[in-house]
Design a protein that fits this description.
alpha/beta, 8 strands, 51% helix, binds guanosine-5'-triphosphate, GTPase activity, GTP binding, SRP54_N_sf, cytoplasm, EC 3.6.5.4
Length: 315
């Protein structure tokens, strides 16, 4: 028996995603079920439904639209929890579909430079490792730049991912300048005719001005070597942070020009609803979701699966 068929793989990450989203979906599902039992739909019930959606981090616009869609043609009728879940899934899918976009590697850019940014511990280094595995499995020559010079452990962690994925790693001493490390790595990747250069950066809080300035410098220095680079700037967001993700997106977008998002830790006690609010507000592409710490635990983002998991509907 082959355990790695696409269906099996999909099922396993789906289980982890819907398991992880339980905090959102079961609270959505059970709260909705509690609300609709044996009552006819009226304004008060719709307001209660909207409250549940707001508590799940979906944001005011989307919560309002879903409540209106639930109310449409159903006033004074008894409705079931499944009816509400179906409307939630449909409306959430409408918001997510336009942002669910794969990461496209432009083959004419050699190397295609991907800068990975985000706050401390969001999962940048792990995501780089998983991405390196994916891209090399597709036949690309990948190089990693250990631009998180702040933490010695981060450099070591990236080296381990380099060994696991057969990707060369360019690193410097702890505390060395991350912009010059990025410069050296890009020069080396060019000389070595690598296809993709993945650049790690130190985790920084979005409200620390001097650290954000340092990130700006990394981008500036990369542009000195290749004016079109970085070709992608991925912001890695930890799903468990909830509302704080909104200000992270704003600050990192302003500083580094984010081109796409990766949301990690959706296998944990995640609050995935925030991704819906982000999609509604910023409309940035969402490329991948992280559903575990292993090398294969990075899944392409698909709007329908995510919407159904949020609504608590079994796939
Ligand atoms: N459960 C789970 N854990 C994850 C996921 N992605 C990353 N992690 C874990 O989260 C922790 C932090 O991940 P890192 O990749 O070190 O995060 P980082 O953003 O590079 O951290 P800094 O170097 O401090 O900025 C590690 O223990 C990872 O194994 C995921 O999708 N699911």
């Amino acid at each position: 028996m082959n355990d790695t068929t696409p269906e099996k793989t999909k099922l396993s990450w789906w289980r982890r995603l819907s398991g992880g989203l339980k905090r959102t979906s079961s609270s959505l599902g059970s709260a909705v079920a509690d609300l609709v039992t044996k009552r006819k739909l009226d304004r008060a019930m719709l307001e209660d439904i909207e409250d549940v959606l707001l508590r799940a981090d979906l944001g005011t616009e989307v919560a309002g639209r879903i409540a209106a869609a639930v109310g449409h043609g159903r006033y004074d009728k008894t409705i079931s929890a499944d009816d509400v879940k179906t409307v939630v899934a449909t409306e959430v899918e409408k918001v997510l579909s336009p942002v669910a976009k794969p990461l496209v590697i432009d083959e004419t850019q050699k190397p295609f430079v991907i800068l990975v940014v985000g706050v401390n511990g969001s999962g940048k280094t792990t995501t780089i490792g998983k991405l390196a595995a994916k891209l090399s499995a597709e036949g690309r020559k990948v190089m990693l730049a250990a631009g998180d010079t702040f933490r010695a452990a981060a450099i070591e962690q990236l080296k381990i991912w380099g060994e696991r994925t057969g990707s060369p790693v360019i690193s410097g001493a702890q505390g060395s300048d991350s912009a010059s490390l990025a410069f050296n790595a890009l020069t080396a990747a060019r000389e070595g005719k690598l296809d993709v250069l993945l650049v790690d950066t130190a985790g920084r809080l979005q409200n620390k001005a001097e650290l954000m300035k340092e990130l700006e410098k990394v981008v500036r220095v990369i542009r000195k070597v290749d004016a079109s680079a970085p070709h992608a700037v991925l912001l890695v967001l930890d799903a468990t942070v909830g509302q704080n993700a909104l200000s992270q997106v704003e600050a990192f977008h302003r500083t580094a020009g984010v081109t796409g998002l990766v949301m990690t830790k959706l296998d944990g006690t995640a609050r995935g609803g925030i991704l819906v609010a982000l999609a509604e507000k910023h409309k940035l592409p969402v490329h991948f979701i992280g559903v575990g710490e292993g090398i294969d635990d990075l899944a392409p983002f698909t709007a329908r699966d995510f919407a159904q998991a949020i609504a608590g509907i079994e796939s």
